[in-house]
Design brief:
This protein has 740 residues and is of the alpha/beta class. The chain is built from 25 helices and 27 strands. The longest helix is centred in the first third of the chain and has 39 residues. Bound molecules: ligand C2E and magnesium ion (2 copies).
């Protein structure tokens, strides 16, 4: 003990202070490690320094009782500002070994060291002090409280300076690396995600946060804030509107930051403004602690460094925008929608569903009122979709009149979508009432990604379009299997047609009065390699669906004309042939001319050719069909309405139709012996008489049926009772036999 020391000043007499607890918190404190094998030294040092505050921060003490312990502790804690180190512990130079290890092995360059020893004789060489960057060396007796405090303050200050310099160096390096990384990103989303991650790593956090920007939604609306990049548990919200994040705090901070164009640091989070000239963005980070000044500076340097990058990347984005955003509705186009689907799928969003909304008869609006009005209708529909579902779903325009949405299955239901179309839409001065068809695909029901999911939704949509009882369908795997089968069948049909393997058979039609053959219906047959035929009920709808019926129909017409010619040669000059015609044929350009041309080419009498159309064909597009038939009829060609009575046809159309013959559907003939069945058949016959048309009963199988039909006054019959459809060679034999 030094006699000259003032007892009050002496270390061992230092004031008592509150017990101190070491905490994990690093902000606002300096971490000190006391290393000494003398328990008492720990106590008195801590007591002496307990109320010391350096640069506004308290001291926190950690303790080690041997060199080994000290190294172990330091290996696990790299934030120790100062080590008060006893030289002599387990060995005479244990403390010096610790110094060596701190600098050489642990590479803790910032940490300050004060060596203390009880024995002046054990003072280290000056070289050691220099070599290992030791701040001070004192014998314990020299170390009065005030001296200790002074030394400690000086050491901590130097720690702070060294640390700032070193961190600046590291920080700058990080900024340069991060910046370089980011500038390579040409996609705004990748860039934004990078920014969140880089800032988090600059300040030593796990990345949890979002980057949002105000994006011009469309000309009329105010800017909307979108999440451009996100890390951690906010990742699912990338590309969504900010409001979709179910966290009021984030929404509030981002809005405040974008408005004030300033960084906002709080106890639990940090919101940074990323200023580009035109497009401000805000980065929100969940820090759960205040950010140190030093880190703030680092972040600020980083932000100014990447602002330029952000500006560049938004330019890129604008270019990209053009490729991914539908210019009319300003919503994602098919490409972008496909990406969105892939993203949603990747995130394993469980109850997500994708929907396609097809506007029914949109082409009527376009053709009838002009493209301008059509466009306005599409915009009005988009606006209503956004208004209704914008916060819950992503919306895009996938095709001319097809919209897509991705969102929760609970929100996007057929019923919810129906409400969109309840009220008419305003387009220019027109108030347009439209309805739509929906195809759904639950993302969990599809093992596919992006484009393939879109295909699935389309399958469902196409199904829904054919469904007459409701306007939606959910995708099911089995649909695709069926579609695959249908496609395979179509392929072979196309092939066999090209190889001339289809045949045209004929079913005779009989006049009931004289039992003579008056004509025949031409019916397609598709023979199969193993014998047997694919039913026309199967392949005709397929050929209609894929448009192949147009070519096949033209061939049928030629065959029928050839057959008429052949019959003429055989001496049957007034036998008529009825040919079935489908809707796609009417829609194909120059259908009327092609029929007339065919009749002319084979030089057959037009009145021997009869076209059979069903009620559904008429109803599909009455204008087109009626005008075509009128033209054909004026040329002499006959027209029969097929399967009459089952298509709920509107009588008003029946009056407008240029008809020669009504064919009573075989369903009614089948039921003709029952009271109700007979009533319908009789009504049809009477209707025919009223309109001055012939009536022919289809599917007559029994003599009993024939008797009733005859009694009703029906003129003609066709059915198995008289003849089944037969190949052309058999037909001639059949007619000849009948003549006898
Ligand atoms: P459809 O025009 O109503 O033809 C009459 C159908 O009734 C034929 O069936 C015929 O075989 C069948 N049938 C005739 N008499 C009887 C009978 O007494 N009992 C029963 N149970 N059935 C009878 P098929 O040949 O299977 O043709 C089915 C449908 O395919 C036709 O109905 C027609 O809509 C369509 N089709 C056939 N050939 C052509 C064609 O060349 N072009 C077009 N567009 N459609 C065709
Ligand atoms: Mg027919
Ligand atoms: Mg029929």
């Amino acid at each position: 003990m030094a006699p000259e020391a003032n007892p009050d000043d002496f270390l061992f007499l230092a004031d008592d202070t509150d017990a101190l607890e070491a905490t994990d918190q690093t902000v606002g404190e300096w971490q000190l490690l006391i290393v000494d094998d003398d328990e008492e030294i720990h106590t008195v040092t801590q007591l002496a320094l307990s109320d010391v505050v350096v640069e506004g921060r308290k001291l926190v003490f950690h303790h080690a009782y041997s060199g080994k312990e000290a190294i172990k502790f330091l290996a696990e804690h790299d934030n120790i500002a100062l080590v008060l180190l006893d030289v002599v512990m387990e060995t005479d130079d244990a403390g010096l070994k610790v110094v060596e290890q701190i600098r050489d092995e642990l590479k803790l360059e910032d940490t300050r060291i004060i060596l203390r020893t009880g024995q002046p004789g054990y003072a280290p060489e000056e070289s050691v002090i220099k070599e290992y960057d030791i701040n001070d060396y004192k014998t314990k007796t020299e170390l009065t409280r005030s001296k200790l405090v002074t030394t400690i303050i000086a050491s901590i200050r130097s720690y702070q300076q060294i640390r700032t310099i070193n961190q600046n160096r590291i920080g700058l390096q990080k900024i340069i690396n991060a910046g370089a990384n980011l500038l390579e990103q040409h996609s705004l989303h990748e860039f934004s995600e990078g920014v969140v991650t880089q800032i988090a790593s600059l300040i030593g956090l796990n990345a949890e946060g979002v980057l949002c920007a105000q994006i011009e939604d469309d000309g009329s609306n105010a800017d909307t804030i979108y999440v451009l990049g996100a890390a951690g548990h906010y990742a699912p919200f990338i590309k969504c509107r900010l409001e979709r994040i179910d966290n009021k705090r984030i929404i509030q901070q981002i809005n405040a930051c974008l408005q004030s164009r300033k960084n906002i640091f709080t106890e639990k989070d940090t919101t940074l403004f990323l200023g580009a000239e035109h497009h401000g963005a805000a980065v929100y980070l969940e820090t759960n602690r205040p950010i140190e000044d030093f880190d703030r500076q680092l972040i600020e340097v980083f932000l100014s460094n990447i602002s330029v990058g952000y500006e560049n990347v938004t330019l890129f984005q604008q270019l990209r925008h053009a490729a991914y955003i539908d210019p009319l509705t300003k919503t994602p186009n098919r490409n972008e929608f496909t990406c969105l689907l892939a993203d949603t799928r990747q995130l394993g969003a469980k109850d997500s569903v994708a929907v396609l909304i097809d506007i029914n008869h949109f082409s009527d609006v376009n053709d009838g009122l002009g493209q301008e009005v059509g466009n306005e209708l599409l915009i009005a529909i988009t606006q209503r979709l956004v208004q209704e579902f914008g916060n819950d779903a992503q919306i895009g325009r996938i095709g001319a009149d097809v919209f897509g949405m991705i969102g929760s299955e609970k929100v996007l239901t057929p019923q919810a979508l129906d409400t969109i179309f309840l009220e008419p839409f305003q387009a220019s001065e027109h108030s347009l009432q439209v309805d739509a068809t929906y195809g759904f695909c639950r993302l969990s029901d599809s093992s596919e990604q992006g484009l393939a999911i879109l295909k699935h939704v389309y399958i469902a949509l196409n199904r829904a379009k054919k469904n007459i009882s409701r306007n939606y369908e959910y995708y099911q795997q089995q649909m695709e299997d069926e579609t695959a089968e249908r496609l395979a069948l179509l392929r072979t049909l196309r092939q066999d047609f090209a190889l001339d393997r289809l045949q045209l058979w004929y079913q005779p039609q009989i006049c009931l009065k004289n039992r003579k053959v008056i004509g025949m219906e031409a019916l397609l047959r598709w023979p199969q390699p193993g014998g047997g035929f694919v039913s026309p009920a199967v392949f005709i709808p397929l050929a209609e669906y894929f448009g192949l019926i147009v070519e096949i129909g033209a061939w049928v017409l030629q065959q029928a004309c050839l057959q008429l010619k052949e019959l003429e040669r055989q001496g049957f000059k007034d036998l008529r042939i009825a040919v079935n015609v489908s809707m796609p044929q009417f829609r194909s350009p120059h259908f009327v001319e092609s029929v007339i041309h065919c009749v002319g080419e084979y030089q057959v009498k037009p009145e021997l050719l009869e076209l059979e159309i069903t009620e559904s064909v008429v109803m599909d597009d009455p204008k087109v069909v009626i005008s075509a038939l009128k033209e054909l009829q004026s040329f002499g060609i006959k027209v029969a309405i097929d399967d009459f009575g089952i298509g709920f046809s509107s009588l008003s159309y029946l009056q407008q139709l240029p008809l020669d013959r009504i064919k009573i559907d075989r369903v009614f003939v089948n039921d003709i012996e029952k009271a109700n069945g007979a009533a319908i058949a009789e009504t049809i016959v009477n209707l025919g008489k009223r309109l001055g048309l012939h009536t022919i009963a289809e599917g007559v199988e029994t003599v009993a049926q024939e008797r009733v039909i005859l009694a009703m006054g029906c003129d003609e019959v066709q059915g198995f009772l008289y003849a089944k459809p037969m190949a052309k060679d058999e037909l001639v034999a059949f007619i000849q036999q009948q003549k006898k």
